[in-house]
Specification:
It is built from 8 helices and 2 strands. By secondary structure, the protein is mainly α. A two-stranded antiparallel ribbon has the order 1-2. Helix 5 runs antiparallel to helix 6 and helix 7 packs antiparallel against helix 8. The radius of gyration is 18 Å and the shape is globular. The two termini are 35 Å apart. 34% of the residues are buried.
Length: 194
């Protein structure tokens, strides 16, 4: 008896059915794109970016659920999901944070705060990339039973709303640094918690 999730059975499904989860993953990619574009398009409200993050989180949950229900799980889909996570929950929030903080502080802000903001944004981005790369290696694209460090989407839940609400605050770069460190900490966190 063949396994329902075997590559042979997955390939027998129609092109449309096999790509439903990938289409949902594109919503996550679009959400990350919206976070990045919002920093250069005047008049985009930070509330739109918080909504885009929520939309990306929903799509991130739904794509995996769709793949399991439709029995079209694949290494490509798992890797695509991780890269979409990097776009929406790693790169997008880092750029959004730096831009929000720089705009709120203004050009006359002390150099120390401007440098701290840039370093915190870079740290968030670098730790997101490191975390996702580690996830791809540790779990080989399979669905893990645990996370190593907090997931990027969990860090994003705090980073984007805080950047939208408390832009210009002195404590915000420190929050971003703490979230960055938590993404790369070497502790196993059971998957059921998030």
């Amino acid at each position: 008896m063949a396994d329902d999730d075997s590559p042979q059975n997955t390939e027998n499904r129609s092109f449309f059915v096999r790509n439903i989860p990938n289409a949902i993953t594109f919503v996550t990619v679009f959400s990350g794109f919206l976070l990045m574009v919002s920093t250069s398009v005047p008049g985009v409200s930070p509330k739109v970016c918080v909504f885009a993050t929520a939309m990306g989180l929903c799509a991130d949950v739904l794509d995996g659920q769709a793949a399991r229900v439709l029995r079209v799980k694949s290494k490509f889909g798992a890797t695509f999901d991780q890269l979409a996570d990097l776009t929406c929950f790693g790169i997008g929030p880092a750029i959004f944070f730096v831009r929000q903080q720089q705009q709120a502080m203004g050009a006359d802000a002390p150099w120390s705060m401007q440098i701290l903001t840039c370093l915190a944004g870079y740290m968030y981005l670098a730790c997101s990339v490191f975390r996702i790369a580690r996830e791809l290696i540790v779990h080989s694209g399979d669905r893990p039973l645990y996370f190593v460090g907090i997931p990027t989407n969990l860090a994003c839940v705090f980073a984007v709303p805080a950047s939208a609400t408390f832009a210009g605050s002195t404590f915000l770069p420190f929050l971003i640094v703490i979230l960055s460190g938590m993404m790369v900490m070497p502790y196993h966190i059971p998957k059921g918690l998030w």
